[in-house]
UniProtKB/TrEMBL annotation:
<keyword id="KW-0808">Transferase</keyword>
<dbReference type="Pfam" id="PF00202">
    <property type="entry name" value="Aminotran_3"/>
</dbReference>
<dbReference type="InterPro" id="IPR015422">
    <property type="entry name" value="PyrdxlP-dep_Trfase_small"/>
</dbReference>
<dbReference type="InterPro" id="IPR015424">
    <property type="entry name" value="PyrdxlP-dep_Trfase"/>
</dbReference>
<protein>
    <submittedName>
        <fullName>Aspartate aminotransferase family protein</fullName>
    </submittedName>
</protein>
<keyword id="KW-0032">Aminotransferase</keyword>
<dbReference type="GO" id="GO:0005829">
    <property type="term" value="C:cytosol"/>
</dbReference>
<dbReference type="InterPro" id="IPR005814">
    <property type="entry name" value="Aminotrans_3"/>
</dbReference>
<dbReference type="InterPro" id="IPR015421">
    <property type="entry name" value="PyrdxlP-dep_Trfase_major"/>
</dbReference>
<dbReference type="GO" id="GO:0008483">
    <property type="term" value="F:transaminase activity"/>
</dbReference>
<dbReference type="InterPro" id="IPR049704">
    <property type="entry name" value="Aminotrans_3_PPA_site"/>
</dbReference>
<dbReference type="GO" id="GO:0030170">
    <property type="term" value="F:pyridoxal phosphate binding"/>
</dbReference>
<comment type="similarity">
    <text>Belongs to the class-III pyridoxal-phosphate-dependent aminotransferase family.</text>
</comment>
<keyword id="KW-0663">Pyridoxal phosphate</keyword>
Length: 427
């Protein structure tokens, strides 16, 4: 029966008696039905970047409701999705000048993967269809997104339904075993992509997808910038599209608007979700470069037949456009400051015997727990160390994001802190 509860709680119905009922939320606080305040140090699932109960959204919503809430973007357009696309692509690096909207991170990534295949087909390479992912990554729950994902525990039950796409090791300096300087190690790690492309045959590879800074599977892990320079070189050499999955990192989470800016690399497709609406509506997007957009410009319907009923609906687009305007340079600077402050306040943990690695990228912190700091040996997964630490933090009124034993005994337990960028200095 326990297993059933695990499944059913996500369907609602209050089946899990352990779950706290949250009646309301404001700024970085969740308020339970019995009045207890919990600090939301994970911003939901790294979503609520601007905090809960944002002022002023009511007017945007009611104005849009008065105008038009829904249109099928297969046949119509509207000022709200146009404005959102403009705002997003203006902020995006390089020539990521077109936006394709969806409703979740998984859908945005599915869009990116299908776009990659369709792009190559249009350009006379119909056998290029595989998407190379990395182990210990997460790109979404739907079958294509899960196929590219390398989180073995989330994949396990569905293996027979997944595409047999190749994976390379993650960008995970703490556990790399390459020789040399951090830069040389980064180049060696990126070289795994070239090896896999050659093994599989470049004529089969459509794209490589990576979280520029890793999210839930290895929170805040990120390589020396040489890694992405090498990825870019390899992708260009073998005519492979580079997809940056910024569902979690996009919009200020790791410091700049987009995490790729940390590495000075421009992907061919960049996906955003979570922080795009900051949790105020389900919406996501795949931003594509000029070359891809132009490939489809002549006859979009024929060459990229894809979309979702609610893609870019005006109500969600208006909400996201309002939220997006709030990601100002000042706001991003505040996020960076709060991230640095949090790191400083947790500094004593760096030497804790259980903490193997303590990573930060902007306002995302990852703590990795190990049984032995020397050997980096993980804890026995049955001990559920991260979950137990999560529970202790909850007892003290702090919500964090745990990951336990998901990585085939390679890594193991970690905790992510990803508070709203606007979290109060004293929280
Ligand atoms: N990509 C990354 C990096 C994510 O962190 C997530 C969700 O956690 C997804 C994709 C999937 O997004 P969604 O749950 O909105 O489908």
């Amino acid at each position: 029966m326990e297993d059933q509860n695990d499944v059913f709680y996500k369907w609602g119905g209050g089946i899990d008696p352990e779950f706290l009922a949250i009646d309301r939320a404001y700024d970085e606080f969740l308020v339970t039905d019995d009045g207890r305040e919990i600090v939301d140090a994970a911003a939901g699932a790294a979503v609520v970047n601007l905090g809960h109960s944002l002022d002023g959204l009511e007017d945007t919503i009611s104005d849009q409701l008065e105008d038009v809430a829904y249109l099928s973007l297969s046949h119509f357009t509207n000022e709200a999705p146009e404005r959102l696309a403009d705002e997003l692509t203006t902020r995006a690096p390089g020539d990521l000048n077109a936006a394709f909207f969806a409703n979740s991170g998984s859908e945005a990534n599915e869009t990116a993967f299908k776009l990659a295949r369709a792009y190559h087909r249009e350009r006379g390479s119909p056998t290029k269809h595989q998407v190379v992912g990395r182990w210990q990554s997460y790109h979404g729950a739907t079958l294509g997104a899960l196929s590219a994902s390398g989180n073995t525990s989330r994949r396990a039950a569905y293996e027979p339904q997944l595409q047999n796409w190749p994976h390379i090791p993650p960008a995970y300096p703490y556990r790399w075993q390459y020789d040399g300087t951090p830069e040389q190690q980064a180049v060696a790690a990126a070289g795994e992509l070239e090896t896999v492309i050659k093994q599989e045959g470049p004529e089969t590879i459509a794209a490589f997808v990576a979280e520029p800074v890793s999210g839930s599977s290895i929170p805040a892990a990120h390589p020396h910038p040489a890694y992405y320079a090498e990825v870019r070189r390899i992708c260009d050499e073998y005519d492979v599209l580079f997809i940056a999955d910024e569902i979690m990192t996009g919009l200020g989470r790791t410091g700049p608007q987009f995490a790729v800016e940390r590495f000075d690399v421009v992907p061919d497709i960049l996906t955003v979700g979570k922080g795009l609406s900051g949790g105020y509506t389900p919406i996501s997007a795949a931003l594509v470069c000029d070359d891809i957009a132009e490939t489809f410009a002549a006859d979009r319907e024929r060459s990229f037949d894809h979309g979702h009923t609610f893609s870019g609906n005006p109500l969600s687009a208006a909400i996201a456009a309002d939220v997006l305007e709030r990601y100002t340079d000042d706001l991003l600077a505040t996020g960076r400051e709060r991230g640095a402050q949090l790191e400083a306040e947790l500094e004593t943990l760096r030497d804790h015997p259980m903490v193997g690695d303590f990573r930060r990228a902007g306002a995302m912190i990852g703590l990795e727990f190990v049984a032995d700091r020397e050997t980096k040996a993980p804890f026995d997964p049955d001990l559920n160390v991260a979950t137990r630490i999560y529970e202790h933090a909850m007892d003290r009124g702090v919500y964090t994001y745990p990951g336990s034993g998901s990585i085939d005994g390679v890594a193991g337990d970690h905790l992510m802190l990803a508070p709203p960028l606007t979290i109060g200095e004293d929280a």
